[in-house]
Amino acid sequence: MAYTISTGFAIYFVLWWVVLFVTLPFGVRSQHEDGEGAPGTDPGAPIATKMGRKLIWTTVLSAIIFAAGLIAYHAGFLNIERLSKLMGMPF
User: Domain boundaries in the chain?
Assistant: First the structure.
């Protein structure tokens, strides 16, 4: 089984979204923590989410994780026979 371009894009796309959800809470300051906020808003609402920075970090981290997985796959660490043996399942 080999990576095709469409499979690689699909894996990277899913990985990118997972990493995005991991990076979202970092660096967010709420209105309650800063002591600022408009009247009638939720005190837990974020003041500045810095989404541009998070999107860049998400892309970089996803590329690193994807490259590590691709290298492990080509080195033979991520083949179906080895993984089924590690999980104790007959192949």
Answer: 7-34+43-86
- pLDDT of 26-81, one tens digit each? 888 888 877 777 788 888 888 888 899 999 999 999 999 999 999 998 898 888 88
Instruction: Please list, residue by residue across 15-24, b when 16 or more beta carbons sit within 10 angstroms of its beta carbon and e when fewer do.
Output: bbeebbeebe
Query: Quick one: which of 46, 2, 5, 1 has its CA closest to 24?
Result: 46
Q: How much is the pTM?
A: 0.76
What is the C-alpha to C-alpha distance for residues 87 and 84, in angstroms, rounded to an integer? Answer: 5
Alpha carbon 71 to its chain's center? 18
Closest listed residue to residue 69, CA positions, set 14, 4, 11, 20: 11
